[in-house]
Design goal:
Blueprint: H1 7-20, E1 27-34, E2 56-63, H2 65-75, E3 80-81, H3 85-91, E4 133-136, H4 142-155, E5 163-166
Parallel strand pairs: 1-2, 1-3, 4-5
Length: about 170
């Protein structure tokens, strides 16, 4: 079991509890959570029975990451859902803004460990990426956005210093 909930989740649930006190019957709330892919957090560790605030009937459904993000972004299909940080940032340019971000981060990946290079590429350090081709499934995915920032801020590899390819 998880040792404790993230403090931001408690703050969000407390705010919901205060609003629900004004309502005489329970509110149905659909919550979609992307499948956990991090090795440090097994799916069985996500105990959905513990997060049951008074006055709310939570309907949890765990779905593949791609399906969760797509259905929320395209159809606003859920009351609450896991969301890609970079996709949410893109929606901030829309008027009206379709989402309100809750500061809860179920995915805590160490992005530095997610860069893979071909042993034949002659890359021995991050600086060797300058002038090389770097591929990712989608340019705006949160992981590649984060990695581009790390490369630029920590290793002086400018975003336009490499050729970015997408696909896969």
């Amino acid at each position: 079991m998880l040792a404790q909930r993230h403090p931001a989740l408690d703050i969000a649930l407390d705010a919901v509890d205060r609003r629900v006190d004004l309502i005489s019957e329970n509110v149905d709330l659909d919550v979609r959570i992307a499948e956990v892919q991090e090795p440090h957090l097994a799916q069985d560790d996500v105990d959905h029975t513990r997060q049951r605030p008074d006055g709310i009937d939570l309907n949890y459904l765990i779905q593949p990451v791609e399906e969760t993000f797509f259905r929320m972004l395209r159809y606003r299909g859920f009351d609450v859902a896991d969301m890609s940080l970079s996709s949410n940032c893109v929606t901030l340019l829309r008027d009206p803004r379709p989402f309100v971000a809750i500061p809860v981060f179920p995915s805590r990946m160490f992005r530095h460990s997610r860069i893979y290079v071909s042993s034949a590429a002659g890359i021995g350090s991050p600086g060797d990426l300058v002038g090389k081709r770097v591929a990712s499934p989608e340019y705006q995915m949160t992981a590649p956005v984060w990695i581009r920032g790390v490369l630029q801020d920590e290793y002086d590899v400018a975003v336009d210093g490499v050729t970015h390819l997408t696909g896969g």
